């Protein structure tokens, strides 16, 4: 069984989890809150896993640091999905790959959405190409996983509360193990 990949992912999160990347909460608080919001929303197990894993790419090749310190979009959603693809099904990796594009979509599709973004999300939006144009919106909605990516994006946006106690990382191990590709 590939449970060692879960150990590697948890090690990455525990090593880099105290980083804030411009947010009011640490990265570990953010991912745990995002996953908890997905659980509270009754999301599928795959979408809960995606919410937990959506920012793993921030820690690969210092992608998050590149965005924060150098103003470069290191495309953490792409590197994160690529890292996860050998181990998890598309129902997990597609929303991870599309969660940034979902933000761009929502900025165009939903009046007032952009105004609710955190400072860090607003900065990264500019680096990531800004709001979708009408053709990009249509193309995005046609992609597999787009609807789940929109749901993930909402968990991502809301998972930034200070001093919110949520279940710990280890509580997600059985869920991740159940989703591993065999």
UniProtKB/TrEMBL annotation:
<dbReference type="InterPro" id="IPR003607">
    <property type="entry name" value="HD/PDEase_dom"/>
</dbReference>
<protein>
    <submittedName>
        <fullName>Phosphonate degradation HD-domain oxygenase</fullName>
    </submittedName>
</protein>
<feature type="domain" description="HD">
    <location>
        <begin position="28"/>
        <end position="103"/>
    </location>
</feature>
<dbReference type="InterPro" id="IPR017670">
    <property type="entry name" value="Phosphonate_degrad-assoc"/>
</dbReference>
<dbReference type="InterPro" id="IPR006674">
    <property type="entry name" value="HD_domain"/>
</dbReference>
<dbReference type="Pfam" id="PF01966">
    <property type="entry name" value="HD"/>
</dbReference>
<dbReference type="InterPro" id="IPR052567">
    <property type="entry name" value="OP_Dioxygenase"/>
</dbReference>
């Amino acid at each position: 069984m590939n449970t060692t990949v879960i150990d590697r992912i948890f090690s990455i999160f525990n090593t880099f989890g105290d980083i804030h990347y411009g947010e009011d909460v640490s990265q570990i608080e953010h991912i745990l809150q995002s996953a908890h919001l997905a659980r509270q929303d009754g999301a599928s197990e795959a979408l809960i896993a995606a919410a937990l894993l959506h920012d793993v790419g921030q820690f690969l090749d210092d992608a998050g640091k590149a965005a924060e310190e150098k103003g470069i979009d290191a495309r953490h959603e792409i590197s994160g999905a690529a890292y996860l693809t050998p181990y998890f099904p598309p129902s997990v990796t597609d929303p991870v790959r599309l969660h940034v594009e979902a933000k761009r979509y929502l900025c165009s599709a939903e009046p007032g959405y952009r105004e609710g973004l955190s400072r860090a999300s607003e900065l990264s939006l500019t680096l990531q190409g800004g709001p979708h144009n009408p053709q990009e919106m249509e193309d995005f909605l046609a992609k597999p996983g787009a609807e789940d990516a929109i749901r993930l994006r909402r968990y991502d946006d809301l998972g930034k509360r200070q001093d919110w106690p949520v279940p710990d990382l280890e509580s997600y191990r059985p869920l991740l193990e159940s989703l591993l590709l065999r």
